[in-house]
TrEMBL record:
This is CBS domain-containing protein. Pfam families: CBS (PF00571). The keyword Ribonucleoprotein does not apply. Coiled coil: none annotated. The keyword Mitochondrion does not apply. InterPro entries: CBS_dom, CBS_dom_sf, Diverse_CBS-Domain. Keywords: CBS domain. It comes from the Bacteria.
Amino acid sequence: MKVKEIMVTEVASCSPQHSLQEIAMLMWNNDCGAIPLVDEQEHPVGIITDRDISMGAAIQHKPLWEIRGEDITSHRELYCCGPDDSIQKALQLMEAHEVRRLPVVNQYNQLCGMVSLGDIVSFTGAESSKKAGDKKISSKETMEFLRHISAHHPAHKAPASL
């Protein structure tokens, strides 16, 4: 199965200069937990999650409207996949980098969708229940991915001011 078969194609995005308050409202209005940041040519340059918003405000001790998306993402690498990549390749990328969402980019490196843990889980099914035409992702692969991505990670040190 390919990423294009399960990815979401209607993706809200914004520029890196948007404030975390604006990004949070985009999440609220689009019922999502992550917003990709794109440049003028629609190339993804970062991604902001709901957790990034809360941690960014807590660590920087600033209101959301004073923090830009780029302030959160500028020091992080962005991982993307292509619509013709296999689900297994996307799972491997997510697992290797401990992320739950991947922007999907076309041949011009422009945002064309998103694939998330939820998308993958919704296409996961018991192999014995496959019917002709049904497309399912291996339950074993999904469970291995969930086990890894949901494991506790080493704690980050809180800023000295706390």
